[in-house]
TrEMBL record:
Keywords: Membrane, Transmembrane, Transmembrane helix
GO annotations of cellular component type: excitatory synapse; synaptic vesicle membrane
Name of the protein in its database record: Uncharacterized protein
Keyword Transmembrane: yes
Stretch list, region Disordered: 1-21
One of the record's GO molecular function terms: L-glutamate transmembrane transporter activity
Chief location category: membrane
GO biological process: neurotransmitter loading into synaptic vesicle; regulation of synapse structure or activity; synaptic transmission, glutamatergic
Topology of this chain in the membrane: Multi-pass membrane protein
Xref: InterPro entries: MFS (IPR011701), MFS_Na/Anion_cotransporter (IPR050382), MFS_trans_sf (IPR036259)
Annotated localization: Membrane
Matches recorded under Gene3D superfamilies: MFS general substrate transporter like domains
Lineage: Eukaryota, Metazoa, Ecdysozoa, Arthropoda, Hexapoda
Chain segments annotated as transmembrane: 32-49, 56-75, 115-138, 144-166, 226-250, 262-280, 325-345, 357-376, 388-410
Length: 463
C-alpha cells in the first residue's frame, strides 16, 4: 500500500491519474483494512482453537487475494475501496491466530522460537519482495499490475497449501513415525490431540477451548498477558509506520524517487527476513543448553530488539542524508527482528492451549496501532517537512522504550496456573477408557508407552 500511495502521488502531480485523492481520503483507505482486521482477531482465535487452523489460514489468504482483484476496478471509488479493504481485513484477521493454532500441534517446546520465527519471517520477506516487484510492475506495466500479480500468485499458493499442509502430525500422510513420536511426546497433554496412534497412557487429552470455557478473566488479570499485549502494540506501531509511510518519509525528507524507494526500501525488510529466524535459533539454543530460562530469553530478545530499534530510529530522525537515514533504519529494523523471539512466541509459553485465542487478543491490540498510525501521521506530518517527520519518528521510538519497561517487568515464559487443565477436565479424563480412535482404527494403550503398529492414510502398516 505504501508503494501504491507513492505512485498515486506521483501521478497526481502529473495529472495522469483518473482521480485525485486528498490526504484524509488516502488515510481512510489505508486504515480501513485495520478495522476489519481488528474485528476478526478474537473470533479467529476461537475458530482456530476449535477447528483445523491450517484450513482457516489457507482460506483467509485465498479470499484476500481474490478480493485484491476488485481494487483496480474500484480505483475511482474511494467508498468501494474502503469496503474492499475492510473485507480484506476481516478475512486476514484470522491469519495470525490460525498460525498459532497450527504451531500448537507442530512446534515442540524447545523448538518454538525457531519454528515460529521461520514462519513469521515470511511477513518481512513479503514486504521486501513486494517493494521491489511493485516498483518494477508499476513502472513497466501499469499501476494496477501488482494487484493482479499478487492475486494470481496467492490463488496458486492456496492450491499448494491445501495439498501439502495438514492440521496436525497425526494426520500427515508422509510423516516419519519417529518424528511423530518426538513431536507428540514433547507436547504432551497441551495439544488436545485425539487422533494420534503414538500417545502414551500418561498423556491426557482435553477438549478444545470454547467461548464459555476460555478463561477470559484470567487473560485480563494476568500481567504476563498484558506484557504481550503492550509489546504487540509497540511493535505493530513501528511495523505499520514503515509499511505505510517509509517511502513517503524518504521521498519528502530526502527527495528520493519511487524507483529509489523500491530498491532501498526493501533492504531493511530483507535483513529482517534473515534476522528473525536467526534470532529464533539463538533463543532455542540458549534454552536447550540451560544458559537462560524461557523468561530470561523472552525478555532479553524482546527488550534488546526494541531498545536497539528505538535508538536507531532516533538516529534516523536526525539524519541529514538518504544514506545516513537508510543506514540507521536498516540497522534498527534488523535488530527489531530479535524481538519476534520474545513477545511473538510468548503466547505458546504461558498458555499453549489458548495460544491462538491469546494471539487474537494481542494482535487485535496491535491492529489498533495500525489504525491509529495513519491518523497520527496525518496530524503530525501536515506539510511533509523533515522536522514534522522527525517528531513522528521520535514518538515511535519512545513508544518502543515504554514497551521495554513494561515487558521487562511483567513478562513471563512459564506456563500460567490458569492455563492448566481444570479439575473437571482431569476427572473426565480419569473416567475415559484407555482406548482412543485413530480415524477408522482403535489402538489399545494400556501401559505400553507407544503403539507398535498402526495403519497410515495409505493403508500401509508401519512398525
Amino acid at each position: 500500500m505504501g508503494m501504491v500511495n507513492s505512485e498515486i502521488e506521483d501521478k497526481d502531480r502529473n495529472s495522469t491519474n483518473r482521480t485525485t485523492m486528498s490526504r484524509s481520503t488516502i488515510s481512510a483507505i489505508e486504515s480501513a483494512i485495520f478495522w476489519g482486521y481488528f474485528i476478526t482477531q478474537i473470533p479467529g482465535g476461537l475458530i482456530a482453537a476449535a477447528s483445523p487452523a491450517n484450513k482457516l489460514f489457507g482460506a483467509a489468504i485465498g479470499s484476500s487475494c481474490i478480493l485484491n482483484l476488485f481494487v483496480p476496478v474500484l480505483y475511482d471509488n474511494p467508498t468501494g475501496l474502503i469496503i474492499v479493504k475492510v473485507l480484506q481485513g476481516l478475512v486476514e484477521g484470522v491469519t495470525y491466530p490460525a498460525c498459532h493454532g497450527i504451531m500448537r500441534y507442530w512446534a515442540p517446546p524447545l523448538e518454538r522460537s525457531r519454528l515460529a520465527t521461520i514462519a513469521f519471517s515470511g511477513c518481512y520477506a513479503g514486504v521486501m519482495f513486494s517493494m521491489m516487484v511493485c516498483g518494477i510492475l508499476m513502472k513497466n506495466i501499469s499501476l494496477f499490475a501488482p494487484f493482479y500479480f499478487y492475486s494470481v500468485i496467492g490463488v496458486v499458493w492456496y492450491i499448494c497449501w491445501l495439498w501439502l499442509v495438514f492440521e496436525k502430525p497425526s494426520l500427515h500422510t508422509c510423516i516419519e513415525p519417529k518424528e511423530l513420536i518426538m513431536i507428540e511426546k514433547s507436547l504432551g497433554a497441551i495439544t488436545n490431540v485425539h487422533s494420534s496412534p503414538f500417545i502414551g497412557s500418561s498423556q491426557q487429552h482435553y477438549t478444545n477451548p470454547t467461548l464459555s470455557s476460555t478463561p477470559w478473566k484470567a487473560f485480563f488479570t494476568s500481567l504476563p498477558c498484558y506484557a504481550i499485549f503492550v509489546a504487540n502494540f509497540c511493535r505493530s506501531w513501528n511495523f505499520y509506520l514503515l509499511v505505510l509511510f517509509q517511502a513517503s518519509y524518504f521521498k519528502e525528507a530526502f527527495g528520493t524517487t519511487t524507483a529509489e524507494n523500491a530498491s532501498l526500501g526493501a533492504l531493511p525488510h530483507f535483513l529482517m527476513t534473515l534476522v528473525v529466524p536467526a534470532g529464533g535459533i539463538m533463543a532455542d539454543r540458549l534454552r536447550k543448553k540451560g544458559i537462560l530460562n524461557t523468561t530470561q530469553v523472552r525478555k532479553l530478545f524482546n527488550c534488546g530488539g526494541f531498545g536497539l530499534e528505538a535508538t536507531f530510529f532516533i538516529a534516523m530522525a536526525y539524519s541529514h542524508t538518504t544514506l545516513q537515514g537508510m543506514t540507521a533504519l536498516t540497522i534498527g529494523v534488523a535488530f527489531s527482528g530479535f524481538a519476534i523471539s520474545g513477545f511473538n512466541v510468548n503466547h505458546l509459553d504461558i498458555a499453549p492451549r489458548y495460544a491462538s485465542i491469546l494471539m487474537g487478543l494481542s494482535n487485535g491490540i496491535g491492529t489498533v496501532a495500525g489504525a491509529i498510525v495513519p491518523i497520527i501521521k496525518n496530524s503530525v506530518v501536515v506539510n511533509g517537512t523533515k522536522e514534522q517527520w522527525r517528531i513522528l519518528i521520535i514518538l515511535s521510538a519512545f513508544i518502543h522504550y515504554a514497551g521495554i519497561i513494561f515487558y521487562g517487568i511483567f513478562a513471563s515464559g512459564e506456563l500460567q496456573p490458569w492455563a492448566d487443565p481444570t479439575a473437571e477436565e482431569e476427572k473426565q479424563w480419569n473416567q475415559m477408557n484407555e482406548t482412543v480412535p485413530v480415524n477408522k482404527y482403535t489402538v489399545s494403550l494400556g501401559n505400553i508407552p507407544y503403539v507398535q503398529t498402526y495403519e497410515n492414510h495409505f493403508g500401509t502398516k508401519v512398525s
